[in-house]
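Researcher: Please predict.
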Amino acid sequence: MRKLFLIVAVSFLSLGVVSANSNRPISVDNLPQKAQQFIKKYFSQVSVTYATEDRDILSKEYEVMFAEGTKVDFSSNGEWKSVECKGVAVPAGVVPQQINEYVKQNYSNAKVVKIARDRNDYEVSLSNRLELTFNKSFRLVEIDD
């Protein structure tokens, strides 16, 4: 009987954890202030198609999709995590200067169409389909074609 009770309790707990994940639409005004400033600075001329808040037990993240196909993911404090553009380059001000310079010097015909960052590195996708990984010191650590 105890085993059955334990199995039922664990099952309900698991369901509670799964149902705690929620991805709900929000207005741009409900994004963190840093995310709103980022949008105004780099995408003021583009209309927002939707914004969502993805909340789980330990954190929140935000996603914003623009009418021309760009998608930006933000952390809970509003810092950008990734910027993915469709058919256009990621705004130059988003890409760290050292990465921009590396791309210009080594792939002059390519543009940065996606950039993602985390605590350890920056991952950059170019229009020529190359993927570059830079460490936090902006040194190239990997090229993937």
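Model: The helical segments are 2-20, 33-43, 97-106.
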